[in-house]
Amino acid sequence: MTEQLGIGLGLRASHYDHVLSRRPAVSWFEAISENYMGLRGGPSGGRPLEMLEEVRGRYPVTLHGVSLNVGSADPLNRDYLKRLKRLVRVIEPAIVSDHLCWTGVDGRNLHDLLPLPYTEAAIEHVAARLRHVQEFLGRRILIENVSSYLTYRQSEMTEWEFLAEIASRADCGILLDVNNIHVSAVNHGFNALDYLDGIPRARVGEMHLAGYSDEGGFLIDTHDHPVSDPVWDLYAEASRRFGRAPTLIEWDDKIPSFERLEREAARAAEVRDAAVPA
Amino acid sequence: MPQSPPELLTLQRSLGEILTDSRGVRAAVGARPRALRWIAAAPPLDAPTRLSVYGDGYFLRLLEALTSDFPAVKRALDEDAFRALAAAYLETNHSRSPSLADLGESFPSFAAAHPLARRHPFLSDLARLERAVLTRLFTARLPALDPEAIKSIPAEDWPRVRLILDPTVLLLKAAWPVERLWLRRELPLKAGGRILRRPNARWLLIYRDETWVKVADISRREWDTLRRLQEGARLGAVLAHAAKALADTDAAQVQRWFSSWVAGGLIKGFAHDGSWADAKTTAGGSGLGPRARRSRRTTTHGRNRHAANDLRSRRTGSA
User: Fold this and answer.
1) Were B28 and a residue from A87, A272, B21, B133 both cysteine, which residue would form a disulfide, CB within 3.0 to 4.6 Å?
2) Inter-chain Cβ pairs, chain A and chain B, closer than 8 A
3) A135 lies within 8 A of chain B by CB
4) What is this model's ipTM?
C-alpha cells in the first residue's frame, strides 16, 4: 500500500508557508519526529506540532526519527518512546522509521548517527530492542542504513549482512538510503551493487536520496547538494531490485526553493519510471 | 530486555569521550590512545581524521542550536564572545535530550554567572527572555474563547469566577529593557542597538497567538493583575486590588486591559465552581493547579478570531 506514496519531500520549517498556502502537488512529506515532540517535561509539541497537523490534514506524512538510539548500550529511553507513540497517535503516519546506529551513551546525546560494529552480539542487541520498540508502538517500523566515516576492527561481517540480519530477526522493514550506500562505498572501498544485492527485497519499505559533499575523494553526507549522478544511477539499480518503493528527497542544509526540490522529486520519478515501468 | 554487550558499552563510552572532548579529537586521542583500538585502519585516512568527522560535527551542531535559540545574546556579544560562552556552557552542559531544543535549558543561569555578565549585566535577562520565547513556541494553545461563554455566566457569579489564561502566557520581570535587544535580534550589527547601557525595569508579557510568539512590554499594574489571575485568584478580588492600585490614575484602564487580553487571545475560559478555593498555579500552566484542573468547569470553544488587536498598541514583537 505504501508503494502508492510515490516520491516525497522532507518537510522543513522554511517551507511551511509555501506548503500550506500553495498546496503544491507533492505526494507526501517526511517529518523529523523529534521536531514535533516538544520540550523535555513539556506536555505538547506546540507550534511545530500544530503546523505538522495542518500539513497532515492535506498530505500523507511519514515520521522519521534521529534519536531512537537503538544501537546504544544505554537502556531504551522510555520517555522518548512515549512521546513518539503519542506523536504517532496524533499524526497517523504512513511510515515510522529511524536509523541503525547509536546516537549517545550514558545519557549523553551526541546528535549524530554513529555506526555500530557489525557483530553477532550487536545484532542480538539491536534486534531485541527493535522488537521491543515495535511492540510498544504497536506497528512495524523501518530502520535506515547510515553513512559512515569509520569502521571497527571488531566487525565480523559486511554492513549489508548486518542490516539484513537485524531486519530479519527484528521483523522490521528497511529504509534504504541510496546516498548513504554510495557515500559509505566510496569511504570504505566496497562495491555499492554488492550492498544492494545483499538486501532482501521484501524488507525494503522506503528509499532515501540526498546530496553529499566531496572532500577530496572522502564523501560527507551533508544533505546540502542535489542528488549526484552516481547516486541517481544507484537509485535506478535499487529501483530495479526493490520496485517502486516510496522515495524521499532529503535536503537539510542550504535548503533551496521549494520549486528546486520539486524538480529533484520529478527527476526521481523519471529515474524510477525508467527502471521500473508502472 | 537483555543487557547490552559489555564490549559495546566500552566502545561507545570510549568514543563518546573522544568525540565530546572540548580540546578536539586529536588532543583527546593523544590523551587516550587506547580509544583507537576500536577503529579499523583504512589508508589513506588515519583513525583520528575519521573520528574528527564526528567530533567536529558534534561541537558545530550544538553551537548552531544555541545560536538559533539565543540570537539576541549572540548579537549583543558578537561572534567570538558568543562562541566562547557557548563553548564554556557545552563543557559542563552536555546534551542529555533527544531534542536539541532542550540544550539551552540552563543557558540563562549559566550566562548570568559567566564573567561576560559583568561586562554585559543585561545578559542574564536577555537569555531568560530568549529561553522563555522558545518555551512558548513549544507550548500548546487552548482553543479560542467562545463569546457565548461570557453570556452564560450569571452576573452575580462574576466576582467568584476565575479566568483561564492560555497556557502560553508567561510573565517575566527583567531589570533591563531586554525586549529592545530581542526585537533587533535579526538586524545586522551595523544597525546598532546591540547592547544596553542603563537598567530600566520591565514587566514583560510573553505569549503565542495563532501566528507566532509575542513579547509585550506592559505596565507593572497590568503585569501584576495578570499574575494574580494566572495564580487562580478570583476575578472579584483581582479587580478590587487593581482598582485600589489605580485609584489615583484611571480605573477604566482595567477594562481596557481585559479588552486587550480577550482580543489577544490570552483569556481562554472561565472556571466558576466554588470547590477549588485553594488552587495553585505554575507559570506557563493553565492558570489553575492540579486540583482545580480536576474539578473546574471550563468554558472554551472554537478558533481564535479576535487575536492581537489592542495589543498592537503596546510594544510588541514576534519571535
Assistant:
1) B21
2) 149
3) no
4) 0.95
**How many helices (H) and strands (E) are present in chain B, helices listed first?**
14, 6
Residue A6 φ/ψ region, left for φ over 0, alpha for ψ in the -120 to 50 degree band, beta for the rest: left
CA neighbor of A106 nearest in space, from B2, B17, B93, B32? B17
Residues of chain A neighbouring B40 (CB-CB closer than 8 A):
150-153, 155
The pLDDT of residue A1: 54
Grid cell 528509499 is found at A207
A110 and B20 in contact by Cβ < 8 A?
yes
For residue B25, give the 3-state DSSP assignment.
helix
Could you give the CA distance from residue B239 to residue B23 in angstroms, rounded to a whole number?
58
Nearest-by-CA chain B residue for A40: B102
Answer yes or no: are the C-beta atoms of A231 and A178 closer than 8 Å. Answer: yes
Distance from CA of A164 to the nearest CA of B (A): 20
Q: How many CA atoms lie within 13 A of B263 on its CB side?
A: 12
pLDDT in tens, chain B (319 residues): 767 787 999 999 999 999 999 899 999 999 999 999 999 988 888 999 999 999 999 999 999 999 999 999 999 999 999 999 999 999 999 999 999 999 999 999 999 999 999 999 999 999 999 999 999 999 999 999 888 888 888 888 889 999 999 999 999 999 999 999 999 999 999 999 999 999 999 999 999 998 899 999 999 999 999 999 999 999 999 988 887 777 655 768 888 898 899 999 999 998 876 433 322 232 232 222 222 222 223 233 222 222 222 222 333 444 4
CA separation, residue A123 to residues B4, B37, B266, B306 (Å): 11, 21, 53, 57
Q: Which residues of B touch A152 (CB under 8 A)?
A: 11, 38-40
- B208 contacts A149? CB cut-off 8 A: no
| Closest A-chain CA to B168 | A46
Using CB atoms, which residue from A108, A154, A155 is nearest to B95? A108
CA dist., res. A233 & res. A235, Å (int): 5
pLDDT, tens only, A126-177: 999 999 999 999 999 999 999 999 999 999 999 999 999 999 999 999 999 9
Length of chain A: 278
Contacts of B43 (CB under 8 A, 6+ apart): none
Chain A residues 245-264 with a CB less than 8 Å from chain B: none
pLDDT of residue B30: 94
CA torsion sign, B53 to B55 to B56 to B61?
positive
Contact B4 A109 (CB under 8 A): no
Confirm if A100 and A116 have CB atoms less than 8 A apart.
yes
Distances, alpha carbon A132 to alpha carbons A93, A97, A128, B155, in Å? 19, 14, 6, 57
Quick check: A3 pLDDT over 70? no
Q: Which of B7, B98, B135 sits opposite A121 (nearest CB)?
A: B7
Q: What is the distance between the alpha carbons of residues B98 and A80, in angstroms, rounded to a whole number?
A: 7
- Spatial separation of the C-alpha atoms in residues A221 and B245, rounded to whole Å: 62
